[in-house]
Amino acid sequence: MSAAYEKIESSLDRFREAHFYIHEMERYYHEAEPFRWSLNSFLRALKEIPQLFQMELQQEEGFKTWYREERQGLKDDPLVGHLGKFRDLIVHQGMLVPASTAFIGTTEGRGLKVGVKVPIHPLQDSDAGMRGYVELVRKRGDQLELLRPDEEALPCVERRWGIKHLDGELVDVCAKAWLRVGEVVADIVQWLGEERPTLALDCRHSSRQVRIKVYDRLLLRQWLRERASV
Hints:
Number of helices: 9
Oligomer: single chain
């Protein structure tokens, strides 16, 4: 590690931590608690990055004046600034509860083929929506024919997380914010005399792939038998 990178080791570590939590949100997309906790950790890490740079480089001649505009640009950024304010709101008002919308239907691997919108509370896993449909099957029959044998179309839940006043799927929004902060990270590295790094979110899954959870019909029939025996 060069002397320049050693000067900002903590800031870069926090930047990598924010990257890590983007992938954790993808991993736990259909599990409400770990998803929300990963989002909360991402927002915290992202907000701390500019502060850490300020702390680590405050003794570097000329940095404070140069950095003032860079940091203000992040505060004024419609995306990064809004996420920062959202994080502050969580700190002062309590639990993080993002917006949640969902559809139940079938997929052939290229998104939702056919489905209906269903309520899944932000504090519930996606399984709650599918279990709700199984209960409906018990009472009214399989109206969407999700339990009917079909080798091509598979039962699924398509879920989408969001934040009020921000357009777009939430993990995509966070990824864009990370890259925006990454522009400032690259600026700082370059200011320190190092070659400007190229930033990328490695191994990100497509939003469509992440949003859909597929279910085995054998599992759904098992849930139906369990409900019928209650």
